[in-house]
Write a structure and sequence with these properties.
single chain, alpha+beta, 6 helices, five-stranded mixed sheet, four-stranded antiparallel sheet, 270 residues
Amino acid sequence: MPELPEVETVRSSLKKLVVGEVINKVIVNYQGVIKGIEVAEFIDKLKNQTINDIKRRGKWIIFELDDYDLLSHLRMEGKYFIKDKIDDVLKHEHVIFELSNRQLRYHDTRKFGVMYLIEKGKRDSVLPLKKLGVEPLTDDLTVEYLKDKYKNNKKAIKTTLLDQEIITGIGNIYADEILFLSHINPLTITNKLSNKQLTNIVNNTKLVLKKAISLGGTTILSYTSVDGIHGLFQNELLVHGKEKCLTCDNAIIKIRVGGRGTYYCKKCQK
């Protein structure tokens, strides 16, 4: 599943390609993508709306229009492509936005991705964005914030890092990398973390995500950027998917934590 760096790369690519374009028509080939609104109303309200900006909140892409915010979550395999109007429509191109002389097409093999259309000014006060936690690359992510959120949390820290209601945008790959750099065992109980460990989580979260964004994210099977950018952060991974620790040369252990494949070094992450 694309995580924050991959979604940010898609957002950045889309912004270069479609900001300023007017949506002349919308075609919905699979109605399950559209949530919280009737499909006919979704199509009608988007007509003649200008794409003024494209932003991100957690793993959500936000198309800022004249009167609405269009929220898009890629989930497992959602992708966007720019195509000519004469190009054949493929089987899994579920939503097509007709622009001036081309089309923005949403493609999703697994059909897990979703879109919401929210009235302007309301997106942060209603679902799905209402419950999201802090953005990890902002000043809102602090040790004091984590101490408050973690004080009664008895889950493994790996599971807690994936909780989008505390920190939004961190997924499985980056959680492993953050914990490795922080020298924290993924099974450590969240409310047992020391101030130093919390400081390491804050600092390494920002470090890992910023570096991943600068490299276009991590290339995974289900991720492709709009303009063909392939994530180079896969070459920088220190623990996720590795067999040996690059620090101490011990074998990397793979276990499941909260149902998620988790990689760590027993020596470096005691």
